[in-house]
């Protein structure tokens, strides 16, 4: 099921991200939420009425979730919304809050679910509550949350899109009919076309900007891929090596998530405030990532690498848990990288950029679990730690790449000066 949603979201995520630049974040985020809601609803119906609702409806629900972008698009658009109304210097903290909330839910959710199941004796009650929460989220996003993009910025993005489309049609000439358009859309090679934003050659870019964006995208994909591929392997390894059961696994997950949430909600904001000072109402000119961003990224990756080296080398259960806590400190890296990437592009390209990242995330969501599970299953009992050696080497690669990032470079569009304010969405819109 995850394969279906992952592959389809890889196709739709960059397109939805680009559309959000032209028509606003709120509507597209609500669409992604509705897709997940319908998919979960069909899953619940199949579980409650197995004789009447075929399992094929579950597959259909997952396909619909993927077409609507799935959670990868929802996260990308959440970041885009935050970028629209947050000053560049505070974005890493804002993104960190979202990550902190996410992992808080991962830590607390199973406890609440277990209590509900124990109290009611019916596991479906947890799904009903989850559906109600998803439905409320979709309604709030669709009808309550204000749009972060001003009409002026939306119209500018639409104008830019029309100009590009007209130029493309003029090059194609007579072949630019409906059939040609359909062939272009269905061409598998065009699936990767949205990734061109990760190596921009438009006016205002330069080799340093291109290198930074490409490296940040590669590092971000490594982080997401390891997160998706390692979690099941870690649990299987601990069960095999230390004979862990549910209690030990629960302690490990709780400590890791508590450390990660503390890093995101407490340590990262304190670091940013200490080095950048309190929020200011003054406008801030976009200037790319600074040394603090790059330092946080490198330190976070180093903690992840140390943690995975620990997984591979320790032979005591307690030290394995300590390794998990060290790796969890590295959770500061992902929101900082996403924030750094938005600082490299003009505001009207943010959705397109984060949509391209959504494509990479969707592919990593499909590929990484397969690769690392295959490595583990092939080496367990022979060199069981091999998978963690590979994962640590992957972190080592990300750490190596991070040293080629250059501070204070960004995509400076011709005849435009972008400034931001800390005061929110309206004041945070670009001032020309």
Question: Would you kindly provide a written description of the structure presented here, covering whatever features stand out?
Answer:
By secondary structure, the protein is mainly alpha-helical. It contains 16 helices and two strands. Strands 1-2 form a two-stranded antiparallel sheet. The radius of gyration is 22 Å and the shape is globular.
Brief sketch in words of this structure:
This protein is mostly helical and 432 residues long. The chain has helices spanning 2-23, 25-48, 56-67, 70-84, 91-120, 124-143, 151-172, 178-186, 207-242, 246-276, 291-313, 317-329, 333-342, 350-379, 386-402, 425-428, and strands at 284-285, 419-420. Helix 5 (91-120) crosses helix 13 (333-342).
What are the secondary-structure elements, in order, as H or E? HHHHHHHHHHEHHHHHEH
Main sheet strand line-up: 1-2
- Rg, rounded, reads 22 Å
> How far from one another are the termini?
47 Å
Low-confidence stretches: 415-432
Annotation, overall tally of beta strands: 2
Q: Report the sheet with the most strands, covering strand number, pairing sense and barrel closure.
A: 2 strands, antiparallel
Portion in beta strands: under 5%
Helix content: over 70%
Shape: globular
Q: What's the rounded overall pLDDT mean?
A: 84
By DSSP (H or I, 4+ residues per run), the number of helices equals 16
Q: What structural class do helix, strand and pairing data support? A: mainly alpha
């Amino acid at each position: 099921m995850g394969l279906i949603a992952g592959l389809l979201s890889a196709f739709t995520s960059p397109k939805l991200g680009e559309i959000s630049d032209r028509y606003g974040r709120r509507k597209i985020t609500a669409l992604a939420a509705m897709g997940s809601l319908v998919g979960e609803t069909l899953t619940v119906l199949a579980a409650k009425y197995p004789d009447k609702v075929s399992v094929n409806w579950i597959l259909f629900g997952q396909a619909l979730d993927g077409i609507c972008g799935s959670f990868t698009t929802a996260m990308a658009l959440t970041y885009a919304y935050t970028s629209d109304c947050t000053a560049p210097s505070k974005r890493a903290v804002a993104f960190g809050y979202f990550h902190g909330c996410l992992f808080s839910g991962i830590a607390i959710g199973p406890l609440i679910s277990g209590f509900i199941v124990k109290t009611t004796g019916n596991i479906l009650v947890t799904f009903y509550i989850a559906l109600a929460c998803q439905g409320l989220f979709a309604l709030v996003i669709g009808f309550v949350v204000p749009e972060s993009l001003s009409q002026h910025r939306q119209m500018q993005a639409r104008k830019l899109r029309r100009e590009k489309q007209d130029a493309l049609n003029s090059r194609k000439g007579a072949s630019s009919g409906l059939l040609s358009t359909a062939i272009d859309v269905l061409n598998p090679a065009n699936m990767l076309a949205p990734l061109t934003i990760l190596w921009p050659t438009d006016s205002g870019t330069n080799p340093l900007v291109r290198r930074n964006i490409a490296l940040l995208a590669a590092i971000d994909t490594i982080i997401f891929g390891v997160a998706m591929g390692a979690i099941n392997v870690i649990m299987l390894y601990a069960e095999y090596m230390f004979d862990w059961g549910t209690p030990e696994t629960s302690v490990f997950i709780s400590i890791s998530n508590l450390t990660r949430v503390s890093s995101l909600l407490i340590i990262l904001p304190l670091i940013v405030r200490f080095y950048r000072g309190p929020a200011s109402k003054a406008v801030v000119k976009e200037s790319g990532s600074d040394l603090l961003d790059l330092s946080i990224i490198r330190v976070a990756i180093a903690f992840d690498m140390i943690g995975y080296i620990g997984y591979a080398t320790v032979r005591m259960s307690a030290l394995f848990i300590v390794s998990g806590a060290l790796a969890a400190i590295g959770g500061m890296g992902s929101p900082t990288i996403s924030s750094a990437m938005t600082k490299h592009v003009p505001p009207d390209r943010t959705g397109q950029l984060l949509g391209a990242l959504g494509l990479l995330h969707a592919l990593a969501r499909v590929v990484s679990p397969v690769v690392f599970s295959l490595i583990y299953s092939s080496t367990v009992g022979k060199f069981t730690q091999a998978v963690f050696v590979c994962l640590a080497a992957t972190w080592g690669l990300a750490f190596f790449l991070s040293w080629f990032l250059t501070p204070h470079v960004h995509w400076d569009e011709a005849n435009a000066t972008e400034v931001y304010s800390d005061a929110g969405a309206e004041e945070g819109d670009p001032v020309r």
